[in-house]
Amino acid sequence: MTTNNHMTSALFLLLGTLLILSQTCLGDDHHRNASLSIDMSSRRLIPNNFFGIFFEEINHAGVGGLWAELVSNRGFEAGGRHVPSMISPWGMIGDEKTISITTDMSSQFKTNPMALRMDVHCNPTTCPPGGVGTYNPGYWGMNIEEGKTYKVTFYVKSSGDLKAVLSLVGKNGTEVLAFKHIGADAEKMKKWTKIETTLTATGSDSKARLQLTTSQKGIIWLDQVSAMPTDTYKGHGFRKDLMKKLLNLKPRFLRFPGGCYVEGNTLANAFRWKETVGPWEERPGHLNDVWNYWSDDGLGYLEYLQLAEDLGAEPVWVINNGFGLLDSVDTPLIKPFVQEMLDSIEFARGNAKTSKWGSLRAKLGHPAPFSLKYIAIGNEDCGKPNYRENYVKFYNAVKKAYPDIKTISNCDASKKDLDHPADLYDYHNYTSPQGMLDNTRLFGKMSRNKPHAPKAFVSEYAVTDPTYKLDGTFKGALAEAAFLLSLEKNSDVVEMVSYAPLFMNQNDRKWSPDAIVFNSDKSYGIASYWVQTFFKESSGAVLLDSHLRIHAKDDNIYATAVKWTDKTEKKNYVTVKVVNFNHASANLDISLDGVDRKSIKLARQTVLTTDDLEGDNTFDNPTKVVPETSRFNSKDKKSLHDLVVEPFSFTAFDLVLN
Ligand SMILES: *[C@@H]1O[C@H](CO)[C@@H](O)[C@H](O)[C@H]1NC(C)=O
Ligand SMILES: *[C@@H]1O[C@H](CO)[C@@H](O)[C@H](O)[C@H]1NC(C)=O
Ligand SMILES: *[C@@H]1O[C@H](CO)[C@@H](O)[C@H](O)[C@H]1NC(C)=O
């Protein structure tokens, strides 16, 4: 991100023109003068885990998203335990005369009874060239890249000798990107056989498919088919390009796995952690019935903990506390659910040798305990009958066994004091740009006289369009920026914050906007994503007391100042962030009390703005609204007076301290 001066001045001209127009229309003031005085003696720290992310399995965020598995419905379980069952998105290669395909319950895995059965009617002379068989198009196409290697695993059985070809082919089924002959004699093939192989692509196609074909008459059964790129983040199965976008936010916590995904419409379809750990072939998978797609649970509880560790983030594990959206467990029957939670904590933190669940974790490849310091007791369940009664059972059990773990209640204490104990409480809000601006005043109004009151965890917030049709808007993102500044200021009562939702696969838009939009091979951040990047140094920084003076009637200017240390550069910075939610530009004076002016200089300035307030990034124009950074060297001698803050912009001024 560098500034293109030419473009910037063109933008200024354009903005200037718009400004004059809008001023005439709205009767807005000429530019504003604002001054920010900063008290450098301030000592209050923003909480260490202030800024994080919330990952929900929604919009194919994990399945067909961050989790790099390429095969969709890999165990043929998505269609339910029926014969025949729906095997979508698997397809048939050949016609009715040459092959028939169905399912049966012949799987060797008790937890995954379904398998695919192919009856091949043709032989080497009557089969079409290339043979007949089945293919899997993945999640709206597999991204296969030339030179990269894919690990393919599957289970197979046949009525006679097996002579087949495993291949990756382009989307039209003709261009072969990689292939291998698979063969074994009838004796071996009588029993289910696990085949593990790698395919190295000699071509690229972002909408490729995996296929197994044969020209041999007989019956072939197929089960538990996986294709994983070998090139994933640390080899842990996460898509690298999407991980890069997450790492760029420096998230200090990862709230997971939902959201309503935790609950399911009914408890029968809730996320049950014990069914998501262990060999992938034995995970039953489940219907994500709230967001309406099958989850094979390849991204299971252990993978979520690994994800948090890889991001350098504290896991915030949202447990199922006995609620579906439509049903719930009565308090007298809640004990097994409490135990399920305790077991999950032991799985994360327990001793690798001496504890039952800790030793399972070690066996599965992670002997070192994970950090787990936060348990959210449910998601948005406060209003439901039994919530409080059930909550207390979970709370007491956690505190007894793990007094250091912080618990999160679903009841919003910003409105009314809680009638039950909690360390934190969830605050969720999806609203209009104006609603988000109104919310900048919310946490300032909270009482400060109860030092032991639970702190707010703003675990879901976003400006949304009531019709959920839009990707997002720059105007909405700017209102979110103002809201985030208010949270920094009020971080004595707000301890953590995360935007929602994080991800959307372009092909499954259940909820928008979402911070990061992707398809099989590309991704972009919307303006709301880029707003969050301005806060990546906030966690653990010093919040400097600052006073903003504006000489105008409406005060749609918001600012904070934080002091932080760049550990690689070994330099101290004061970052002043300013939201100007006005049609007019502002001239800002920054003054710092308690520091010699000569020991401080403006090192760089980062601006996020566009003249299209209702616009946002798209696949066609993924960099329409991205931060632009200008760097200043000593020769520039930038004054801290009359700093121009553009109309409708979010600006960070980085001042370096000597
Ligand atoms: C802003 O300040 C300048 C002097 O620094 C003054 O000339 C100008 O009138 C002020 N503008 C407004 C709108 O107050
Ligand atoms: C299939 O794709 C390949 C490679 O893109 C192309 O050369 C070929 O013409 C295509 N065939 C059909 C039938 O579209
Ligand atoms: C969200 O914020 C808006 C604007 O302040 C407010 O009207 C609404 O009640 C809030 N919603 C919730 C669920 O707190």
Automatic annotation (TrEMBL):
InterPro entries for the chain = Alpha-L-AF_C (IPR010720), ASD1_cat (IPR055235), CenC_carb-bd (IPR003305), Galactose-bd-like_sf (IPR008979), GH (IPR017853), Glyco_hydro_b (IPR013780), Glycosyl_Hydrolase_51 (IPR051563)
Q: Which GO terms describe its molecular function?
A: alpha-L-arabinofuranosidase activity
Q: Where is the Alpha-L-arabinofuranosidase C-terminal domain?
A: 459-649
Could you tell me the keywords of this UniProt record? Glycoprotein, Hydrolase, Signal
Catalyzed reactions: Hydrolysis of terminal non-reducing alpha-L-arabinofuranoside residues in alpha-L-arabinosides
Signal among keywords = yes
Enzyme Commission no:
3.2.1.55
Q: Is this entry keyworded Hydrolase?
A: yes
Sorted alphabetically, which Gene3D superfamilies does this protein's record hold? Glycosidases, Golgi alpha-mannosidase II
Annotated signal sequence is 1-27
- A Pfam family that this protein carries is Alpha-L-AF_C
Judging by the UniProt lineage, the source's domain of life is: Eukaryota
Which BP terms in the Gene Ontology apply to this protein?
A: L-arabinose metabolic process
- PANTHER family (UniProt xref): ALPHA-L-ARABINOFURANOSIDASE 1 (PTHR31776:SF0)
What family, per the record? Answer: Belongs to the glycosyl hydrolase 51 family.
Q: Write down what this protein is called.
A: non-reducing end alpha-L-arabinofuranosidase
UniProt source species = Saponaria officinalis
